Amino acid sequence: MNLQEKKIQPFILITVLVFCFITVLMQGIPALAQVPRRYIWNGTFLMLLFLLLLLLFLHKKGKLTEERIVWIIIAAGMIFHCCYVLLSGLYDRQHDEGVYTGIATSQINPGHIGYIEYIYKFRKLPDMNPYQLFSYYHPPLHYALSGIWLIFLTSLGMPEDLAFENLQALPLLYSGLLMLLTYRILKKTGACGNSLFTGLLLIALHPSLTIMSGSINNDMLSTLLLACCIYTVLCWIRDKSLKNLIFIALSIGFGMLCKINTAIIALPTGLLFLLDFIHTIRRQEGNFLKKFWLAAKNYLLFALVSGSIGLSWIIRNLILFHVKPGISSATEASVMYTGNYSVWARIGIPAFSHWHFSFPFHPLSGDVIHNTWVIMFQTSLFAEVYPTELSGLPLMLCRFVYPLAILTALASAILFFAVQYQKWGNKVAKPKMATTTAPQQQEALFLSGGYLAFLLSFAAFSIKYPYTCSSDFRYIVVCLIYIAIGLSDSGRLYPENSRAAALSRITRIAVWATLILSAIIYMTWKQW
Prior knowledge:
Blueprint: H1 3-28, H2 30-33, H3 37-60, H4 66-87, H5 111-122, H6 141-155, H7 160-165, H8 169-188, H9 193-205, H10 207-212, H11 219-238, H12 242-258, H13 266-283, H14 288-310, H15 312-321, H16 343-347, H17 372-382, H18 392-424, E1 429-430, E2 433-434, H19 438-464, H20 479-493, H21 499-525
Antiparallel strand pairs: 1-2
């Protein structure tokens, strides 16, 4: 990490914290909470315009460094996310949110809000079978942090209803930290220049992450912890120290304590550990037991740390309530049920008519849309929203952006795997020289394995729980980090005048177009 990178990161962190603080004040002070929506929109436009003018000014003065562009991208992302949070209420575009009735009542409410309210109201984790109320089966990390946040805000004198609105401030903070962490990940893989900016912009302006920045469930925190794991594994690949191993263990452990399916990242991580374990045994001298111990002792500590944290919620429920991990799902009578269709119809290649290009929205009905990949693409852009009143410019842009996003996503995925193949094939090119290193192959194995693991687990999840909501893109939003890595790496791995480099540039341009047009859609759609 060079000196400029070290300097910009605290500045980015301060920027994220300042925007979050402003949002807390705007939502928590009664007078500011009544600010008309048009003022918030106008303020957003003015701040984005300021960033654009700053970009042009620095470029004209020859002072537009990579670090300053990175700050401008993250600042723009925070402005956009803050705007969304301020214009979206506690019950807007949430998932299984439930309700709250306040500390004055002893009522126990369902949903994510009810779970948070329980900790806020009773100052403890739920002491009931977590499957008795919907959403209580989730591990408690996010809900405990949110409950503590409510206790803190109300202790400062903030009205309870405004304190609940400020539950969105925590996922907003997580979204900002995710941008900073993504920057660290991309730099760790060697990204720079325009390709770096494209990868970072994908995380800053993608519609799914914008909506998740205001979601009061555990999706945003679990995504941040998955990103922490990706980053720490990349660090470990380059420095196989006990410190990095413990950081990986903490990332996976707390990830599982936030959302159990974050354990998927343990599959590619475990594969790397297995290969390193075998390599360590082969290179050590002495008898087998001694070599085994030397190779295994750090991994045993890793298992102890990650397991004791990550499995604590599961073990607790097994001991106290004799229930196994799982989720509470709807019945076959639900309008979202897709189990009446074949496995191929649900996870196979969809027919052209199934994409619904004429009206690209997910209506929740399994009889209308039941293919996992169609639902995934639609919810990646528009969440689970079906606005029948849509017309004019927003509808025209949607009909253009939707197929563009599909083509761009497919091209980006192919580009990602092509880049990892380049690394695995020992063809990594650096200025004026070619180099071959084992860490690059390990990186390619870890990233490719992780991306595939999440895609396959997503397909398996939609089969096990056959409902349209099971195919929501938010379940694999972490794949955007893998795509960002592919976009960023592609700019440095191919010769500048090669056909692959040209295709990479076209893909990056398509990503920029999709993100900018999606932002325009949401601004003109009046969904916020």
